[in-house]
Amino acid sequence: MKIAVNANLTREFAASTAHGVVQKLKEYGAQVLLDESTGVEFGEESDVSLCTLEQCAEDCDVMIAIGGDGTILHAGKAAARCNKPILGINAGHLAFMAGLERHELEQLKKLLNGEYTLDRRMMLEVLLFDEKGFCIERRDCMNDVVFSRAVNRTIIDITVESNGRFVNEYRGDGVILSTPTGSTAYSLSAGGPVINPTIESILLTP
Fold it and tell me: Which of 170, 148, 166, 167 is nearest to 158 (CA)?
């Protein structure tokens, strides 16, 4: 099994956790791929392969992200584009999306043995159109997308529609559209509810 490892080395315990993960994966017989930013921590080890995060996602069977939720989200976008599963390992103080803590690396053996279940998460596809109706930008979001006022504006008016049907109008700083996964992030701090991540829904928080 090819497993790609991406670590946010700015996290206090990320480097030591990454070394522990790579050691366990080798011990269990996996082929290890490291993205270039993580590879600097390992020098010139001959039994690991270095590649870009995007190339790692293409070539691996499973991706492991070591850090907090931000790290998991960042690596998750690359994994999602290639339809690859991702396992988050918490190397900080809080990570809602992590499947393992840094002291649970023995559990990686179950990954190699296929003893796991997939937790599928909803994502948002965001398309930005110009005034002529041409799509000028496309993004994939696992957490949320925020429509907010410009720096020089004090208030904005936003009309929300769903499948061409009017939903509501809002006047204020903006609105947050989040997935159930993102309901524990910015939306929560703005007063939104927490939604079970297995429910397919879009949360709108003014």
Answer: 170
